[in-house]
Please model this.
Amino acid sequence: MAELISVADAEALIAAHMPSFGVEQVSLDAAIGRVLRKPILAERDHPPFDRVMMDGIGVRWSDSLPTSFPIAGSQMAGMGRMTLSDSGACLEVTTGAIAPDGCDCIIPIEQTRRDGDRYVLAEGYQPTKGQFIHGQASDCRAGTEVLASGVRLAAPEMAQLAANGVARVEVAVSPSIAILATGDELVSVDELLGEGQIRRSNDIAIAAALRGHGLDRVALHHVSDDLSATTDALGALLAAHDVVIVSGGVSMGQRDYVPEALAALGVKRIFHRIAQRPGKPMWFGVGPDGQLVFALPGNPVSSLVCAIRYVRPALLAAMGLKAEPLEYVCLYDDVQTNPTLICFVPVHVRQDETGRSVARSVVSPTSGDFSSLVRAHGFVQLSPGESRALAGAVAPLYRW
Ligand code: AMP
Ligand code: MG
Model:
């Protein structure tokens, strides 16, 4: 049987075998949630002109400002630049308009009263020079990098693309992923349950961990515990996808055919079994055409933890996503460790009175008990230790 390898070595070996999935151009609408692969520079100054920040009137400031101004015209948002030629008069303005030439002070409508063809300042109101004018380029200057390559395109990033005229966006190609659930005991969510059967949920959980992270091309399949059926199913999926994630069938049981089927298909084993709990039987290999195969143990906690700890970050890194720095939390309670294995412990995270993130372990008696996972935000990684990691110890957190 293969030696156990360390979590760090498993991570490094996976990273070393990641291909580049390439880049593609998509419409702005299709770019939501994708990984940007080209830096975006400001198309022009932002704002592109001195911009009015309040509805009101524009005037020429002086330290002996009159208290009433005849209306010389209206400079509305979207209009070309006007000029205030009479420094004792005013122009009506709206938010978003160009600050007219000759105006260096915007007086909000709330501080005025209309009196026929004039505006009169509110009693005692004393405007200051330059007020409510958002200076050209004060947000950013033309040519400044507003988005770096490698960011995920969420709402603020989408606003930058639109504001800078990027109608076609260069994003990472999302790999085509198949998830194969193995097991004679498994039926789908809407099938009738026979004796000894359960509904399959791992594939749904793994797909959920990937979708919404820019990994949306996910197809779900199922195969029974039979060597030739497993080989056929894996062969077909390897021919059609960049990545195959298998759930179950990778342990030491009589009916765990996945490693044998993969070997028969020419998938090179890179490692099998990691010094971790849960998820020790995890298998990783590379197919004849560079397809990536992650075979995860079938226990629901194991398969989800492995998908989040290894599969998702490796695929996103290969797509060029800049990784966020690891998030660390303090343990709320003492947590049992294992003398030789790294332990992944599901935790509920909250902030204590001092603002520290504190993680309370969510007890799941075995890696087959997964109802308690809904109370957890993710899991912490605890180094091997003779007895326990103590309350107050700091550990990295991996969120679902
Ligand atoms: P295995 O790794 O195939 O030995 O499966 C380990 C345990 O996980 C067994 O109790 C299986 O019934 C369960 N299991 C395997 N695959 C799934 C799945 N897709 N959904 C829910 N439970 C599963
Ligand atoms: Mg099985």
